[in-house]
Amino acid sequence: MTPLENPALTTDTIDTFSSQGSESGKTHGEATTTLRLNTQVTSDFSTTSLSPVTIQSTGLSERLLTQLCCKHLYEAGMLTAHSLSQKMALGGAVVDEILQILRRDAIIEVRPNHAISATLRYGLTERGRASALEALAQSGYIGPAPVPLQDYQFQIQHHSIHRRVVDGPMIDKVFANFVIDPNIKDQIGMAVNSGRAIFIYGPAGSGKTYTIAQLPGVFGDHCAIPYAIAIDDTIIEVFDPLIHEIINDVQPAPGGNETNDAIDNLGDSSNNHTINDKQNQKNSLLIDRHRDPRWLLCKRPVVLCGGELTMDMLDIQFNPATRQFQAPLQLKANGGIFIIDDMGRQKPSPAEIFNRWIVPMEEKRDFLTLGSGRHFEVPFDQILIFSSNLNPLDLADEAFLRRIGYKIRFDYLTTQAYQRIWESQCHQHDVPFNPDTFAFLLTELHQKNRTPLLPCHPRDLLGIARDHAYYHQETEVMTTKRLQWAWNTYFVDLNENNIVSADEAEQRTDSSTLATDQTVSDRQPLTQSAKHPTNLTNHPKPDTSFQRDAP
After folding, report:
1. Which residues form the AAA+ ATPase domain (predicted)?
2. Nearest to residue 347, comparing CAs of 310, 301, 303, 402?
3. Predicted model pTM
């Protein structure tokens, strides 16, 4: 059944959503506001993707399905109709129709079954093996049947991440256990609602990527991901188990008998299923006649790439060894979040990467090309986030930065925020919080080394100190001596005048006092001193592009 045949969705709803990005004079966020307010988004896709019952209702060609069936039989040698139904993620009626075509053309034959069973088993004839080899030479894909591009476009729009409205309580819930600037938290929530790209920047270690990666939890729902999509008769794999997390507690679709009648009538008694096995089958997405089993319910994906990003990763990938097509990263990120981290560290120039996203950001659609030269359009339905510890103006001109709706700056921490993170990490490492040790950390290490406070420091320093204690089989993890050792190990300092021994650190403990509610960077200018030559050390020098002006 095609999307337009579904009575749960009207043509007006589809047309309204399809035209949301093309309304004259409106941004994407403005165009979707009315739709968000007037359309109730449902998480259950059983009403929008019904299981096909004929070859025609799959939206795929007879040639594609028969070739896929031949490849499965070639790989397995011999299969029952029930097994083929599960492997191809198609209902029994569709598989039966495919088998009838293959038997008519002498591609398959019924194999003798020596077991006491009425189940028919199918294998390839000589002609069938030749057909399977020919099909494998064209495409090495052997898996569930794909969905047509039109159905994919519809489902992505129906489960669009931009149709979800985020408010303050939702953001507060996700970041309840985070130490985060309230202004940054509010900016993130507003940026998500805008439907526009986001640029986050700030010094390395300020928690940019870790914070943004929590965003899918804000939505609290899921999206539909197909195993693969079909462009004409070319199959492109979309589902990636490293990216897409399947929701296992899928409830059977309401109404009637959940099992596929055609499969039940095959009489596969050779498997000797127990009652529990049959109940598991009834709850399985693969044999739920109300849902299209070619789709999987998954948590909204998060795709993260950094310095390894190359331009070819944003196009259809073809593996000549397996003769399979893989979807690009942004296609796998549809319905979720796509984070390009460490902008400015990639082999392609920032201008090349930014220019790649001009059309997708503006029109919410992307254009891809197959090796044959076939061009096609796919939805670009995701929150695109750029992250960098470099100055944004060094990466792109102001004209492009204006296309990015929100620029969010992550900065150094205040002493209070730093202490909260330190106490939290002490709890996680099962280390008692010692105010004197924390005072030593602030005054003798951070201040004297002119090192700003970053969220990554507590976790890393405590981890190194714990490793040191375990190695020496000591129960007291956090002492000033061990903290000094962890500091010297964590930071790179080639100037011998700056290295403080662990014994000397103990002598400084008495003079340490708790820092005030003021950042280290505010109290002392974060500039190079004579004791820290630029060409000899790299840890005391802060990233001056994000330095606050001294009061």
Report:
1. 194-414
2. 310
3. 0.74
Per residue in 477-531, pLDDT (tens digit) is 888 999 999 999 999 875 555 555 555 655 555 544 444 344 434 433 333 333 3
Give the tens place of pLDDT for each residue, 266-298: 333 334 333 344 444 333 333 445 789 999 999
pLDDT at 260 over 60: no
CB-count exposure of residue 303 (10 Å: 0-12, 13-18, 19+): buried
Which letter does DSSP use for residue 101 in this model?
Answer: H
Long-range contacts of 354-363, Cβ-Cβ distance < 8 Å, separation of 24 or more: 354/395, 354/396, 354/400, 356/311, 356/314, 357/197, 357/384, 358/400, 358/403, 360/330, 360/384, 361/196, 361/197, 361/403, 361/404, 362/403, 363/21, 363/22
CB 50 within 8 A of CB 290: yes
Task: Judge contact between 67 and 136, C-beta under 8 A.
Answer: no
Tokens linked to 195: 């439907």
CB 158 within 8 A of CB 8: no
CB 110 within 8 A of CB 71: no
Q: What is the pLDDT of residues 411-466, one digit of tens each?
A: 999 999 999 999 999 998 888 999 999 999 999 999 999 999 999 999 999 999 99
Both tokens of residue 145?
Answer: 């049947």
Q: How far apart are CA 15 and CA 526, in angstroms?
A: 56
Residues of the chain above pLDDT 70, percent: 72
Which residue, 205, 196, 229, 154, is CA-closest to 32? 196
Identify the three-state secondary structure at position 79.
strand
